[in-house]
């Protein structure tokens, strides 16, 4: 069972660490590098997983979880790392990275980006499993919907027993919005991120969300699991959990800020070697 109060309090602190740098309780710092389709995020935690600092930047250097602009990705990660080091007054050394489930073939490229920025990659995992480091559920389905993909991890007794991923994500919502309103993709992205317009746009993007829910429903049934746990930037859309619940027939929950779940979970999985 998800302790939503604990998760929301933790994520609120991570969000706060974008503007405020917290004092770590230990010398060693854990870094999570999340290379997303829409954003690149670096989260820094101390050894006790207390949020210390966070930096993010909108980017279009990946497509469906695969790096398509290596130079651009490297530059952004390097710049975010330097900003964090300036804030912290110390060098960041070790990091963990994560991949959308099913994109294991691009592990090396992700690793080269992090290492090219001066980080030592000490752990590599799939994104839904990384998210569960924050959620800490033993049974259920973690669904991570990013810009390019819908990934899921089925958990039983605390262990991941199944991982799936398909290329439908927030980018597809933006394309639908752009077509519906006859606007540019960038303008559609802004509308999508405007909470005040979520009620207006939900009927427009509903078919895409139903497709995402159908993807999940293809792999899990109500008799197998009792709860779906959403995370990823696309899940910030107000009302998305209700559509998932209706399509799958499975209770669906999400935290107040699902965007920061995966990068925070990646950082939790960093192994400090130095």
What does this structure look like?
The chain is α/β, with parallel strands linked by helices. It folds into 2 domains: 4-126 and 260-268, ATPase, nucleotide binding domain (Nucleotidyltransferase, domain 5, 2-Layer Sandwich), CATH 3.30.420.40; 132-258, Nucleotidyltransferase, domain 5 (2-Layer Sandwich), CATH 3.30.420. It has 9 helices and 12 strands. The strands form 3 sheets. A 5-stranded mixed β-sheet has the order 3-2-1-6-7, sandwiched between helices. A 5-stranded mixed β-sheet has the order 10-9-8-11-12, with helices on both faces. Helix 2 (70-88) packs across helix 3, helix 4 (127-135) crosses helix 9 and helix 7 packs parallel to helix 8 (240-248). The longest helix is centred in the C-terminal third of the chain and has 22 residues, at 198-219. The chain is globular and about 50 Å long.
């Amino acid at each position: 069972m998800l302790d939503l109060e604990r998760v929301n309090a933790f994520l609120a602190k991570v969000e706060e660490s974008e503007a405020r740098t917290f004092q770590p309780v230990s010398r060693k710092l854990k870094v999570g590098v999340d290379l997303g389709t829409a954003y690149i995020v670096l989260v820094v935690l101390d050894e006790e997983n207390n949020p210390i600092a966070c930096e993010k930047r909108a980017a279009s250097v990946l497509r469906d979880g695969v790096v398509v602009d290596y130079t651009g990705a490297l530059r952004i990660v390097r710049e975010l790392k330097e900003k964090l080091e300036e804030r912290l007054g110390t060098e960041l050394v070790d990091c963990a990275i994560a991949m959308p489930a099913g994109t294991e073939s691009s592990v090396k490229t992700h690793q080269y980006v992090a290492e090219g920025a001066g980080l030592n990659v000490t752990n590599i995992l799939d994104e839904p499993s990384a998210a569960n480091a924050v959620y800490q559920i033993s049974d259920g389905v973690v669904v991570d919907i990013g810009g390019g993909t819908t990934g899921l991890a089925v958990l039983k007794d605390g262990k991941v027993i199944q991982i799936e991923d398909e290329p439908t994500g927030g980018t597809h919502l933006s394309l639908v919005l752009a077509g519906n309103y006859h606007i540019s993709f960038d303008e559609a992205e802004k509308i999508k991120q405007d909470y005040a317009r979520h009620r207006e746009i939900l009927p427009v993007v509903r078919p895409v969300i139903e497709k995402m829910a159908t993807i999940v429903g293809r792999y899990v049934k109500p008799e197998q699991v009792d709860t779906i746990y959403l995370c990823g930037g696309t899940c910030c859309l107000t009302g998305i959990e209700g559509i998932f619940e209706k399509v799958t027939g499975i209770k669906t929950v999400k935290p107040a800020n699902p965007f920061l779940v995966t990068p925070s979970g990646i950082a939790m999985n960093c192994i400090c070697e130095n």
